[in-house]
Amino acid sequence: MWVSRARYRLCPQWLCSRKHWLLLALWVAAASGSAQAQDLYFAQPYANRMQLNPAYAGLLDDYSITLSYRNQFPTLAGTFQTSQLAADYRFRNQHSAAGLLVNHDRTGSVGYTRFQAGGVYAYHLRLNEQLNLSGGASVSYGLQRVSYGNLVFGDQLSDDGVVRNLSLEVADYKPVHYVTAGVGGLLYTEQFWVGAAAHHVNQPTLGFVTQATLPLRLNLQGGYKVYFVRTTVKQQPKEISLTPTVSYTRQGGSQRAEAGLYFTATPLTVGAVYRGVPLPGAERPQQVLAAIAGVSVGSFRLGYSYDMSLSQFSADLGGAHEISLALREFDSLEVAWRRLKRRNYPTIPCPAF
Questions:
Q1: What is the rounded (10 degree) CA torsion for 327, 269, 61, 225?
Q2: pLDDT tens sequence across 272-288
Q3: How far apart are CA 86 and CA 326, in angstroms?
Q4: pTM for the whole structure
Q5: Could you tell me the CA-to-CA distances from 319 to 9, 46, 296 in Å, in that order?
Q6: Sequence-ordered alpha helix ranges (H) in the chain
Q7: 108/329: higher pLDDT
Q8: Are 71 and 106 in contact (CB under 8 A)?
Q9: Distance, CA of 219 to CA of 51 (rounded, Å)
Q10: Is 99:121 a contact under the CB 8 Å cutoff?
Q11: Strand, coil or helix: what is 110?
Q12: Is residue 30 packed enough to be buried (19+ CB in 10 Å), middle (13-18) or exposed (0-12)?
């Protein structure tokens, strides 16, 4: 994904090509129609669960607000940074939830930015005493643009090394607007969950130079929680548990498989996610191990993760730092009333980080 950037660092004259800069911007943001195109990956997928599957809205808390920040390849001048705001609210009837998802991506040197904001709706259904079903959908508006202020064209360079302010190059690439939609479903009990989601089902048109499309992204995810201790003290749940997870993503011509393991001893959670599990018939992927740590204090959750590359090429680019902060609330009186009326839905057992 960053091969072209390495080429730039070896060949300064590559700065003179506006076309190559723009292609690099599309590669970095993973918004082109090439086989390498992928959406943003979060190392804490369950802290950003509506990004993973819209059916997660309203399944962990009565309401929550989560802020996430990811800084990828920090050793590069053009580090890729992403900020996300996610909020969801479960209605008192327990059958439906609404959510908000806002993303902002940017990369420093290229001046590429992408903003995407949209709504999420999920409907929850109890199939029997143990089994539950949630279906969700999302619709988002997106805007991507390139800032030309950081670019230097060939006619700005003089023989004595002075960079002129003016260029005859015409910055004629307008911002790209698009609308994207996604759907997803989850089947879960108090101990396991399995889900599937399809994002960009309308495959919106992107690209500054060509009419590339954002490929359909398919994701399968699941896990199982083993409880060693599970109690409620002063209306606060306590647990000691171990949760293995798996996930598979396919977008365009690329695919990714990962396996994770989380250990929770309230209020602490530690975990590791191995990304790049070899798949039959597929090229050997870049391999990354993400270490995750999180703590829950009252109504707050704080999570941190670091991506450690196991492949030499991506190791030279640096890892990735990610932090999440969530404010969540669970109405204990409402829960007691639901339990009395036998209307209480079990919480999905996925990790919170």
A1: 170
A2: 999 888 887 777 777 88
A3: 9
A4: 0.78
A5: 19, 20, 25
A6: 3-10, 18-29, 49-52, 312-316, 332-340
A7: 329
A8: no
A9: 11
A10: yes
A11: coil
A12: buried
